[in-house]
Amino acid sequence: LKDEWIETVKENLPEANKNIADRYFEDEVNDLLHEEAIRNNRRPDGRGFDDLRPLFAKAGGISPILHGTGIFYRGATHILYALTLGGPGDAQLVEGMEYQTKKRFMHHYNFPPFSTGETGRLGGMNRRAIGHGALAEKALIPVLPTKESFPYTIRIVSEAFSSNGSTSMGSVCGSTLSLMDAGVPISAPVAGIASGLMMSLDYARDKKYKVLTDIQGPEDHHGDMDFKVAGTRKGITAVQMDVKVDGIPLHILAEAFVKAKSARERILDVIENEIALPRANISPNAPKIIAIKIKPDQIGLVIGTGGKTINEIRDTTGVDGIDIEDDGTVFITGKNGSAEKAQAIIEGMTKEYKVGEKFEGEVVRIADFGAFVRIGPNAEGLVHVSEIAPFRVENVGDVLSEGDMVPVVVINVDETGRIKLSIKQADADFAKKKAPDAEGKPRSPRPPRFDHRRR
User: Fold this and answer.
1) How far is CA 231 from CA 144, 182, 264, 326, 449, in A?
2) Which residues of the chain have pLDDT under 50?
3) Could you tell me the pTM of the whole model?
4) DSSP 8-state symbol, 90
5) Where is the composition biased (Basic and acidic residues) (predicted)?
6) Strands laid side by side in the 236-243 sheet
7) How crowded is residue 31: how many other Cβ atoms within 10 Å of its Cβ?
8) Cys bridge to 399: 134, 256, 273, 435, which one at CB 3.0-4.6 A?
9) Which pLDDT belongs to residue 15?
10) DSSP 64-83
11) Alpha-carbon dihedral of residues 407, 411, 417, 419, nearest 10 degrees?
12) What does the buried/exposed string (b/e) look like for 186-197 if buried means 16 or more CB atoms within 10 Å of the residue's CB?
């Protein structure tokens, strides 16, 4: 039809260029859509003003590798959603002139040219894609769990495969599906709808208008308002409005809110019919996060000089990351049991030993007055010669050797953290079994005593 219009203009106005013909055509279509809506109560696709396009929702089943997926259709608007979970260290660092923060939830929106039947270059993000992604992100943040209850970093990518209006609100709906499929314990599902407006061409005189629910391409392009509302059944989480007129009267805005709520609840019915609650468990492909608590003054011990200790733990266990907060909270992220291994090492390093605790320790050094026994990754205690056996031990080396594994019990921890251990209180028979000839062995001769008194 547009091509015929341009040919007609060329025939009747040979001096007119194509841009003028395009502009006249768009003006005619704009007037026609407004007149049809106001006078004949008709929309371009024949729907009623409050009708939604056909809806389809699917949670999961797209890829076993991804941690959460979803598909959402609204008419010819089709979007695929992919969600991945990461550790706290995967959060995005956001820096400004006077602040620095981290984002643990990111929503990225892609709108390739083929989604509107066009060809073009697939490259970096543009302003539109960034804005749509930010709107959907804002709509979902209020229902996300706290970092304390769910320490994962969450990233969702919305891929528009086909677009005929309202892909940003479609991204909200599908992102909800992928969040629940991934087992993210959101407080409530979120849906979004775009409402439009057709005001009479002579509105100042007749005050006629029509609020349109779930607008598609032509209504978005030629309409007077694009009003996006996202939220749960209990409230609104995000709003955005674009207008092409001088202003929207308050009563029209109120009507748009009411109709958006009704539409939002119908969409939520479809979403909840597909998946009513978040899955009980996260994907087995997602990393495991273990949170433990250490004292703030032990942070330096775990990190080590120049990060040496923490890097050794990472290399030894194969964890994805170890993140330490200022309050001493340690998040360990890993797969295949690596997180548990790192947890054991860190807990051993920072363990506070108490009187009465028993261990199997390794003798690491022999001295005249006793033996030093390692009972943890970063903990050694002294077994005084009097605590080795229930009988007198003349020479420590007669009973113990470096490398021996011995049973010990903590008998004292002083205010500086030095640990005293006892073998005889842990196992009175150990020394007898280890060195049966040591009991009753005569003392070795003492060296001569010197008289240091001044004469």
Assistant:
1) 13, 20, 8, 35, 90
2) 443
3) 0.80
4) G
5) 429-442
6) 209-213, 191-199, 225-231, 236-243
7) 12
8) 435
9) 67
10) SSSSEEEEEEETTEEEEEEE
11) -40
12) beebbbbbbbbb
Q: What is the DSSP letter of 289?
A: E
Residue type at position 432: K
pLDDT (0 to 100) of residue 118: 81
Res 455: pLDDT: 53
| Residue in the structure block whose two tokens are 């009991």 | 439
pLDDT for position 119: 82
Distance CA 188, CA 234 (A): 9
Beta-bridge partner residues of 99: none
Nearest to 173 by CA among 159, 200, 192: 192
Which residue do the tokens 């775009």 mark? 194
What's the full length of the chain, in residues? 455
Query: Please, where are the H alpha helices in 57-151?
Result: 127-140
* Ordered DSSP codes for 168-204: HHHHHHHHHHHHHHTT---SS--EEEEEEEEE-TTHH
Q: In terms of Cα–Cα distance, which of 310, 297, 306, 307 is closest to 346?
A: 310
Give the domains, in start order, of the chain with CATH numbers: 2-40 (no CATH), 55-274 (3.30.230.70), 288-350 (3.30.1370.10), 358-434 (2.40.50.140)
Alpha-carbon distance of 37 to 91, in angstroms, equals 48
CA distances, 54 to each of 142, 189, 190, 272, 312 (Å) = 28, 20, 18, 16, 56
Give the Cα separation of 299 and 293 in Å (integer): 10
Decide: helix, strand or coil at residue 286.
Answer: coil
Give the span between the Cα atoms of 314 and 49, in whole angstroms: 59
pLDDT for 454: 60
Distance (Å, rounded) from C-alpha 119 to C-alpha 307? 50
Strand partners, 404: none
Q: 168 and 174 in contact (C-beta within 8 Å)? A: no
Residues 56, 62: Cα–Cα separation, whole Å: 15
139, 192 Cβ separation under 8 angstroms: yes
Q: Element (H or E) spanning 308, and its range?
A: helix 308-317
Report d(CA 207, CA 200) in Å as an integer.
7
For 124-160, write each residue's pLDDT tens digit.
Answer: 778 888 988 999 999 999 999 999 999 999 999 999 9
pLDDT in the model for residue 351: 83
State the DSSP H helix or E strand holding residue 226, giving kind and residue range, or none if neither: strand 225-231
Write out pLDDT tens, residues 329-349: 999 999 989 999 999 989 888
Angle at 239 between CA 236 and CA 242, to 5 degrees: 155
Q: What is the pLDDT of residue 310?
A: 94
